[in-house]
Amino acid sequence: MDKYEVGDVVRLKKQHPCGSSEWEILRVGADFRLKCLGCGHQIMIARKLVEKNTREIRKKEAEQGS
Q: Residue 1: pLDDT above 80?
């Protein structure tokens, strides 16, 4: 049902000060924990803000079976 899942990469409208606008989702709930893919900085941000500011969602790639 949820379109956001742990491991997905989201592109937000505003850039992080390091210059990257892509974030990996580490935790999903009322708040999200996001990790900047540019510098590795982690933030907690309200779900409402993430949903409002998302431009693109890249789903995590299915792991290749071993």
A: no
